[in-house]
Design a protein that fits this description.
Blueprint lengths: L1 H32 L25 E3 L5 E5 L6 E3 L12 E3 L4 E4 L13 E3 L4 E4 L13 E3 L4 E5 L12 E3 L4 E4 L3 H8 L5 E3 L4 E2 L3 E2 L8 E4 L4
Parallel strand pairs: 2-4, 3-5, 4-6, 5-7, 6-8, 7-9, 8-10, 9-11, 10-12, 11-13, 12-15
Antiparallel strand pairs: 1-2, 14-15
């Protein structure tokens, strides 16, 4: 009898934890929706009274009803990213390219340790890349090109040993490429890298690694 009670208790605990996760994700996405301008109403199905976000458009969930994808490329959205997005702890794909997302990138994005693809290119983001991005150890594709980002490229990106593609071109980054990041190139971890059209010191062209398709850094003007 005692073992049966323990089984029931464990099952109830799993359900409770899953419910908390889903409600946290609903809260995070609704908080973000409330900060966005959405002229085409692409977020119309995002209902704050939902038990979870899994029936919402542009959202994909796992079998456990945790958000794994948010796909909002070229959705005519404008407004900021918010710290609450760091609560989407199961998300693997955050695809927001081709909008008018503005403001800075919250350091809380670095909490998304399951993130595989981050696409923020062709927006109007400002500020720097947070050092916390060095915690995104599952990340394979980092797309930040064609924004208004500034500051140095953080050395913490050298922690991203799963990274295959990094595009930072057409921003206003300054300083030099950290040796930690260049180390990933030399080890043929990164296969596509583009730092062109920034304000970087030095120059790196045409890596001899057969695995890297392009390594481009324009010298500082």
């Amino acid at each position: 009898m005692a073992s049966r009670v323990l089984v029931y208790f464990a099952f109830a605990l799993v359900i409770a934890v899953a419910s908390v996760n889903c409600n946290t994700e609903v809260d995070a996405l609704i908080a973000w929706k409330n900060k966005l301008s959405d002229p085409n109403n692409v977020l119309g199905s995002w209902d704050p009274n939902s038990a979870n976000p899994c029936t919402w458009s542009h959202v994909t969930c796992s079998d456990q009803n945790n958000v794994t994808r948010v796909d909002l490329g070229v959705a005519r959205l404008s407004g900021p990213l918010i710290p609450e997005l760091g609560n989407l702890t199961f998300v693997q794909y955050l695809v927001l390219f081709g909008n008018s997302i503005n403001g800075t990138i919250p350091k809380e994005i670095g909490h998304l340790k399951n993130l595989i693809r981050l696409e923020l290119q062709f927006n109007i983001l400002t500020g720097s890349i947070p050092d916390s991005f060095g915690n995104l150890t599952a990340l394979k594709f980092l797309e930040l090109s064609n924004n208004n980002l500034t500051g140095p490229i953080p050395a913490s990106l050298g922690n991203l040993t799963s990274l295959q593609t990094i595009n930072l071109n057409n921003n206003s980054f300054t300083g030099t490429i950290p040796i930690e990041v260049l180390g990933l190139v030399r080890l043929a971890v990164i296969r596509v890298i583009n730092f062109s059209n920034n304000k970087l010191d030095g120059s790196v062209h045409n890596s001899t690694s057969g695995f890297v398709t392009s390594v481009i850094q324009d010298p500082k003007a």
